[in-house]
Each structure stands twice: as structure tokens, then as C-alpha cells.
Amino acid sequence: MRGSNSDRVRRDNLAAVLDLVHRTGPLSRAGITRATGLSRSTVAALIAELTGMGLVAESGPQGTARVGRPSPVVHPDPDCVAIAVNPELDAITLGVVGLGGEVRSRRRIEIARPGAARTVEVVAAELGSAELDGKRIAGIGVAVPGLVRDGDGVVRWAPHLGWREEPIAAELTRATGHPAFAGNDATLGALAEHLFGAGVGVPDLVYLNGGASGIGGGIIAGGSPLGGTGGYAGEFGRNRPAIRDPADRAVPDGTLEDEVNRARLLELLGLGSADQLALSGALADSADPRVRAELARQARVLGGAVGAAVNVLNPRLVVLGGFLADVLGADPAGFAELVAEQCSAPAFEEVRIVPAALGADLLMIGAGQLALHQLLTDPAAIRPPAAEVE
């Protein structure tokens, strides 16, 4: 526990119970008691307090084969939500995310290269939607394709958006009155997959995300996000890959995100713009040999970059999201062989390479987790719903 006094212990226990229900979903009181090691009376008191805060709710007991009285089931209160925001090169995606990582809604608003001020306007307008009537907004999380400073959510540099030194978190808080936070999109994607997706229970993983604004990465090391000194770790897309065959080079002196590129796939498919679901569907349906050839070329370049990451970080799992999951999906076994060729045998022998499990919801869940972090860490410090404030 973080403190020795009874109030600190109570607050830590509240956080432990709320985080458990958030990560695992509905649990019986008996299940919470077993998982936390707390007494039944303590668990009952904590659940009553969290219910009063509007964070959890209880429903009737589920059927059980155990002897004795069935235990009520505790689940996240559906009226407590976070707002998730992902500004991209061609659109702003907004989502409503509940405790438990459930994406209640997701909406894509096509805006070419949205500025920080325009993003704030869009989010502020969204908060007036009927969908949010009666909801408790715990916070706003922004997944940014760029370098975001830990601590204050200032976007130091998002080259594809043209953002420099943008205090997006502070501006959103000022405009909406809700606590707002910002983080790198791929780092948040890695966290989402670790908590709710392909990386559940995996303490060491590398996540690479491919989107309209390029390629970013996130790292989970020892069960925690690896951010580096300022929070800028994981910028794999800015590296210049070693490309064995000169014929595979598409851009002279190009970075990884120049070579492994979503826009090139869209162009070959004849699409001006598409969200990830539409792009994945179009790639799966295409029999165009040019599209197949481009996917294979991008796989060869990406395989080298992933191999270098495996050599340096020795993860148990590599997760590919966004259009990178489509590059992997075109030939998963062949891609694994490409990566293995770049790795030392011991480093690669326990590695699995998988597509992101959370699909189009991934960055919404990651941004939602960022928005909910303060609440999950110390629920007793968060103000109660407005209706309960005297």
C-alpha cells in the first residue's frame, strides 16, 4: 500500500477493487474477495462506497454450483464514461468509452489535417450530444500521432498534423471543464492491447501501429509502458530501415513510414480516403496483382524493422495494428520467416507475431484508458457526479 494510515489504505483498496472490475469485467463479490485477499465485510463496504460514487453497480447473483447463498455481481456503472479522441491526417475519430474498456460509440469526422484548435472545437461540440445526456464524463483522452510530453500532455511535434508545442490537454480542459490528457497513439494502443487485447497477461510486448499519419510504436516492459525520459519512446516509424534488395526501396533515404505506407495502398486500390475497416475490407477483396506485390514489398521492409526491435527488446509478443495488421495478414507465416531472418535465434524463439485484437476500437480504448487513469488510481479523489454535489 502507498500509505500507512487508514484513509490511505481505504483509498488504495477502493482503487484495487475498481481496477479489478475494470480489467476483468463483471465479478461476484465472492470473486472480488478471492482476487484481492480482503475480507468479505471490507469488500462489501468498498463496493457500497464505489456504488455511491457512481462507479460500479450490482446486479442479481448468477447461477453457481457452489454451496451457499449466491453472491451479487459487481460491474462497471454504465453511466460513467470517458471521451476518446484520435486526430489523424484525414479525420478526427471520437468515441465514448465506458469503464471496462467498452466502446459505446465511435464516430469518424473527415477533416483534412485538423489543427489543434479545430480538434478542441469538435470535441467541445460533441459533449453537447444527446448521447451523453445523463452520463458522468470522467475525462477526455487524446491519442496523438506524434511526440507528447509526459506530465502535461503538450504535443511537442506531430509532423503529419503540423502540430508543434500544442498544449492540447490544457486547451481541452479549459474549453470543456473536464480533465483532459494526451498521449502518443501507439503507446496508448500498446497499453490497450496489454490490458484488453492480444497482450493480456503478457509482460513484455512491442506494438506497432500503422495509420494515416505514419507508423508509431509502443512498448510494454515488465508489465508497464516504457515511455523513456520524456515519454517519446517507440518512434519506430522515424527510423531508416536496412533494405536488403534495392528494388524494394520506394523512397530514396526513406524512413520506415515512408516505405511502409498506407497512402500507397489506398492509391493502388483507387480509394481517396477510408477508415481502417474499409481499408482492410478492400485489401482482403482485391485480386489486383499490384496490390499483392505492394503488400509483399511492404512486408519485406517491415519484417526487417520488426526483427531489429526483437533483437533490441526481446519481447514475448509483437502486435501489429492498423494497416500493418493487413500487411501481416497477407502472409502471416511468410512474415514470421522474414522477421526470423533478421533475429538471433535465441531472441526469436519465443516470439509470437499477431494482429491487434481490438481492431478499429483499439485507439479509442487506449485514449479512454488514459482518460480514466486518474479515476482508477484514486477514485476517492474524483469529484462525485454533479447531481450529488450540494
TrEMBL record:
What Gene3D superfamilies is this protein classified in? 3.30.420.40, Winged helix-like DNA-binding domain superfamily/Winged helix DNA-binding domain
Q: What sections of the protein cross the membrane?
A: none
InterPro entries tied to this protein: ATPase_NBD, ROK, Tscrpt_reg_IclR_N, WH-like_DNA-bd_sf, WH_DNA-bd_sf
Residues in HTH iclR-type domain copies: 13-57
What family does this chain come from, according to its entry?
Belongs to the ROK (NagC/XylR) family.
Which PANTHER family does the record match to this protein? BIFUNCTIONAL UDP-N-ACETYLGLUCOSAMINE 2-EPIMERASE_N-ACETYLMANNOSAMINE KINASE (PTHR18964:SF149), ROK (REPRESSOR, ORF, KINASE) FAMILY (PTHR18964)
Protein name, per record? ROK family transcriptional regulator
